[in-house]
């Protein structure tokens, strides 16, 4: 029996009365209810990603979007409730608000895992809503760490499979439209819900998370971190409504006024969506990859190449020696973080951090000059505005290369690549040409990330933020995730010293 079944998803007129069992949302619900065991290697990677999320959330605790989201969440205390990252474990809030605050903390630095195919995604955005609901409902429903692992295996599978098949960005729809359904499905698995309930939760979550890509265009705002947190919060609320018997727009994907017909490829569209066959394991998390550097994923390999050139060709650091740098890369990289985006902000020293971490001209120039990349130092205004950096930065452009575009979309993991070929023309007329296919930390890279590297990333980002005892406590709990009891799930967070949180002022709002 094949492990994956490809479903033909297309638009149907209302008069056709498409049976529920033939709708994609129902297929997703059936996947979520399949009690197939989680393979050991999948469990291992899910633990890695829980650690990874905690690392990047810890590093963002005092950043303005995280402070604001945390203040909103703390205005909604609730029992039993869920924890808010950074706060004491006994301080609990309503689970949808915990999903919100923790989702913003995870997403703020653009530093956690990624999957790229027909569309973009950060599948670990599923973790905050699932952990929040697990903590809130653990005692009442008898949930354990094994249930969290099962729920996350479903969430990763659904998001990755949707991203493989359906392009949102082509129609300027933000990628979190795949996150709402995946989080809802993962919550369904976590809570042991029936297919009918999950079906309606998926439909509601999708319907309420289709927004435009302007959040990742031009002058990128703080909403970039909020968008996936909003999808996670919406998914929690959708599941709650569905559990109370409330129904969804149907068919949400295939209807003549549904998402495909009106927002995506239109009435004549066909999508081939692969989902695990009944009884097949959910292994999609193993196809995802985390970041060693705090920047958009398609810059990861190019940062590694720039670091190597910094060591091997020190003359390239000086713009007086460089006439032009052209990065030949995929369509996505060129048009999203390269000069093909036609965003002048990507070359603006006054641009926001959110814009700069989506500017490969800036990122490559700084990594080439510094030989490193740091989630704080590489974005400081004084670093951004350094005259020799600005001069070099504005000599960096990108160009689409069909070969790299083909490799970007290749279904073969051994061929799939997110790098490019860099051609540097020097002032003396000589040329430097180098290329890199995948980041060093990629499973096929020079230094693949394993448990040791995930733990190391957490320790590095927690340094100066958490007390050493808290670092060790969290790592102990997280690495025991599959065997945690209901009472222990509340420990899947980090508590910062009170003085750290008090060092930032929470803005006043409505709540």
TrEMBL record:
Entries under SUPFAM superfamilies matching the protein: 2-methylcitrate dehydratase PrpD
Reactions mediated catalytically: (2S,3S)-2-methylcitrate = 2-methyl-cis-aconitate + H2O
Positions of the MmgE/PrpD N-terminal domain: 22-270
Record carries keyword Lyase: yes
MmgE/PrpD C-terminal domain: residues covered: 293-480
PANTHER family reported in the protein's UniProt record: 2-METHYLCITRATE DEHYDRATASE (PTHR16943:SF8), 2-METHYLCITRATE DEHYDRATASE-RELATED (PTHR16943)
GO molecular function: 2-methylcitrate dehydratase activity
Key words, A-Z: Lyase
Source superkingdom: Bacteria
Keyword Endoplasmic reticulum carried by entry: no
InterPro entries with a match to the protein in the record: MmgE/PrpD_sf (IPR036148), MmgE/PrpD_sf_1 (IPR042183), MmgE/PrpD_sf_2 (IPR042188), MmgE_PrpD (IPR005656), MmgE_PrpD_C (IPR045337), MmgE_PrpD_N (IPR045336)
EC numbers, comma separated: 4.2.1.79
Name of this protein: 2-methylcitrate dehydratase
Family of this protein: Belongs to the PrpD family.
Description of how the protein assembles with itself and partners: Monomer.
């Amino acid at each position: 029996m094949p492990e994956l079944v490809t479903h033909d998803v297309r638009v149907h007129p209302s008069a056709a009365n498409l049976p529920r069992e033939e709708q994609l949302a129902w297929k997703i619900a059936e996947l979520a209810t399949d009690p197939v065991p989680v393979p050991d290697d999948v469990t291992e990677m899910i633990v890695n990603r829980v650690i990874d999320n905690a690392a990047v959330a810890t590093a963002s605790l005092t950043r303005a979007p995280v402070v604001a989201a945390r203040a909103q969440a703390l205005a909604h205390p609730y029992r039993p409730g869920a924890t808010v990252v950074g706060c004491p474990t006994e301080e609990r809030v309503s689970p949808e608000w915990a999903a919100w605050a923790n989702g913003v903390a995870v997403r703020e630095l653009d530093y956690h895992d990624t999957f790229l195919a027909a569309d973009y995604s950060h599948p670990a955005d599923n973790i905050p809503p699932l952990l929040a609901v697990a903590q809130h409902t653990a005692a009442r429903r008898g949930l354990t760490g094994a249930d969290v692992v099962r729920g996350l295996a479903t969430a990763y599978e659904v998001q990755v499979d949707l991203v493989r098949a359906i392009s949102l960005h082509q129609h300027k729809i933000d990628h979190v439209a795949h996150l709402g359904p995946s989080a809802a499905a993962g919550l369904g698995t976590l809570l042991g819900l029936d297919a009918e309930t999950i079906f309606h939760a998926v439909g509601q979550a999708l319907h309420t998370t289709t927004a435009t890509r302007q959040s990742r265009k031009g002058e990128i705002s703080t909403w970039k971190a909020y968008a996936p947190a909003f999808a996670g919060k919406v998914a929690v609320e959708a599941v709650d409504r569905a559990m109370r018997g409330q129904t969804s727009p149907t068919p949400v994907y295939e209807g003549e006024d549904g998402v495909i017909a009106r927002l995506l490829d239109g009435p004549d569209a066909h999508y081939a969506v692969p989902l695990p066959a009944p009884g097949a394991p959910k292994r999609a998390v193993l196809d995802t990859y985390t970041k060693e550097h705090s920047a958009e994923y398609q810059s990861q390999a190019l940062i590694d190449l720039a670091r190597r050139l910094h060591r091997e060709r020190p003359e390239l650091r000086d713009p007086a020696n460089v006439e032009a740098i052209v990065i030949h890369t995929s369509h996505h990289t060129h048009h999203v973080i390269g000069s093909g985006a036609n965003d002048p902000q990507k070359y603006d020293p006054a641009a926001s951090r959110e814009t700069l971490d989506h500017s490969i001209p800036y990122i490559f120039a700084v990594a080439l000059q510094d030989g490193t990349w740091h989630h704080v130092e590489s974005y400081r205004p004084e670093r951004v505005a350094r005259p020799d950096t600005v001069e070099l930065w504005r000599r960096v452009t990108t160009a689409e290369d069909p070969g790299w575009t083909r490799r970007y979309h290749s279904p073969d993991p051994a061929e799939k690549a997110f790098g490019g070929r860099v051609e540097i023309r020097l002032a003396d007329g000589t040329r430097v040409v180098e290329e890199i296919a995948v980041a060093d930390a990629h499973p096929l890279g020079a230094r693949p990330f394993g448990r040791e590297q995930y733990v190391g990333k957490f320790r590095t980002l927690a340094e100066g933020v958490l007390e050493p005892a808290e670092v060790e406590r969290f790592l102990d709990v997280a690495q025991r995730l599959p065997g945690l009891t209901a009472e222990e799930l509340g420990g899947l967070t980090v508590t910062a010293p009170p003085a750290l949180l008090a060092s930032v002022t929470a803005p006043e709002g409505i709540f």
